[in-house]
Amino acid sequence: MRKHHIAFDFLVFDNINELSAEDKSLMKVAVESRKNAYAPYSNFCVGAAVLLENGELVIGNNQENASYPSGLCAERVAVFQAGAKYPGVAIIAIAISAASKNYVVDRPAAPCGNCRQSLSEYELRQRRPINLLLMGEKGEVFKCPSIADMLPLGFNNSYLK
Ligand code: THU
User: Fold this and answer.
1) Does the 11-151 domain belong in CATH 3.40.30.10?
2) In what helix (H) or strand (E) does residue 149 lie, and over which residues does it extend?
3) What's the predicted TM-score (pTM) here?
4) Burial of 60 by CB count in 10 Å (0-12 exposed, 13-18 middle, 19+ buried)?
5) Low-confidence residues of the chain: pLDDT under 70
């Protein structure tokens, strides 16, 4: 029997103003896109902004549905749109901002498991890590170096032979 330990490092910034100019402007785009979220059921609005290798920005926000599982998270709306519009162009980073109509979200919200799996597919395909920037509507910002770190022991296409 062997024991394995998995850990990862990420950066914690006190607030958005501590970020580099590039990261800050990407997060600002996520904040703006959050405002167009369609979240009448949860009142939890999420915005995502994807920066591509070719300099293009692609946005997403959560789109809910009266049949709850038919809705989609902001992160997947964004990366699927990026994949559809710019196939084969690597994703450098994704910024995510969450806010609620019911309370002040003052801490980062990390992507759900389904979004981690979807993001992981793009990261593996492009063989280059995707940076994640996570924020609520204010407060600390987490910068995580890769999706792989956030989805340890993830399933991938190497199992599909
Ligand atoms: N949501 C996202 O958009 N991203 C996440 O990573 C977590 C959750 C959305 C889905 C749903 O519309 C609302 O937040 C509440 O779960």
Assistant:
1) no
2) helix 147-150
3) 0.96
4) buried
5) none
